[in-house]
Amino acid sequence: MPISPDQATEIAELRANTQPTLRATVPGMEAHLYTAHEVLDHGFIRVIDYMGDDSAICQAARVSYGRGTKSVQNDEGLIRYLMRHWHSTPFEMCEIKLHVKLPVFVARQWIRHRTANVNEYSARYSILDREFYIPAPEDLAAQSVVNNQGRGEALSGEEADRVLRYLKDDSTRAYDHYEEMISQDDQQGLARELARMNLPANIYTQWYWKVDLHNLFHFLRLRADSHAQYEIRVYADAICEVVKDWVPAAYGAFEDYRLGGAQLSGKALDCVRRMLAGEKVTQETSGMSKGEWREFEHLF
């Protein structure tokens, strides 16, 4: 179960306690507040707080004191201009704070994005729950033969069964020993900060993650990409659904120019010009390496 009964009660109480405000609010985000969106087998994301909306981005870009006389169409055009030309500071005027429950090995990838404020559940003071990420059978895959950090074909048959059994058995055994080490029944009990070292990387942790929209878009551009690892991509996908309801104009521009767009090198752009002129261009005549050419071909 992704959320505990205590967390469900807390969410219900927070959603029931509404407060009047003069600040900008977004109906779509108000609906998301505190609601847990399930990810993987035991994980979730939920919005704790947010600041700003599409108009806040435009206000910052225009450095005005109000909405002014600009129409929604003007605002959307401005946002698309800002996104198209890689302007960043207006998007930094919006912020979001998320509560995320995720496997430790996913958290170690996630924390590489160092442009957020993070406060993680501490296993020095508290006892971690007996919850582990166990992949669905269809998500067990062999090492890719063309990408050192990717997956290849799915495992099947006896090999897949054996891997799942190892993951479940090893996780259970490690947690049993963790509980035994910290127990104070007829022994002193090992300090929690030491006992945690024996826990596997697929155990779940939790954190609060606060980030501005510019840096969130950077995170999503990398982690919602089809080449990202599945276990972090599903979190990015869930966040994308939230951001759509928060800043629809900004997300639309992001989806068009970043998620659905491509950045070309000078050599690649020259190849496109030559192709449009009717020339047959090959990897040998492109000036690009085999890896660059392979990526270039995948764009079309």
Automatic annotation (TrEMBL):
Keywords from the UniProt entry: FAD, Flavoprotein, Methyltransferase, NADP, Nucleotide biosynthesis, Transferase
GO molecular function terms noted in the UniProt entry: flavin adenine dinucleotide binding; NADPH binding; thymidylate synthase (FAD) activity; thymidylate synthase activity
The EC number(s) this enzyme carries: 2.1.1.148
Residues forming the catalytic site: R223 (involved in ionization of n3 of dump, leading to its activation)
Residues that bind FAD: T89, R112, H113, R114, E120, D212, L213, H214, H218
CC cofactor note: Binds 4 FAD per tetramer. Each FAD binding site is formed by three monomers.
Domain of life: Bacteria
Keyword Transmembrane appears in the UniProt entry: no
EC class of the enzyme, as a word: transferase
Cofactor(s), names only, from the UniProt record: FAD
Annotated dUMP binding sites: Q109, W110, I111, R112, E120, Y121, S122, A123, R124, R196, R223
UniProt catalytic activity: dUMP + (6R)-5,10-methylene-5,6,7,8-tetrahydrofolate + NADPH + H(+) = dTMP + (6S)-5,6,7,8-tetrahydrofolate + NADP(+)
A GO BP entry: dTMP biosynthetic process
InterPro entries: Thymidylate_synthase_ThyX, Thymidylate_synthase_ThyX_sf
Pathway(s) this gene product operates in, as recorded in its UniProt entry: Pyrimidine metabolism; dTTP biosynthesis
Entry keyword annotation includes Methyltransferase: yes
Subunit (UniProt): Homotetramer.
Family per record: Belongs to the thymidylate synthase ThyX family.
Function description: Catalyzes the reductive methylation of 2'-deoxyuridine-5'-monophosphate (dUMP) to 2'-deoxythymidine-5'-monophosphate (dTMP) while utilizing 5,10-methylenetetrahydrofolate (mTHF) as the methyl donor, and NADPH and FADH(2) as the reductant.
Protein name per Swiss-Prot or TrEMBL: Flavin-dependent thymidylate synthase
Source organism (scientific name): Litoreibacter ponti
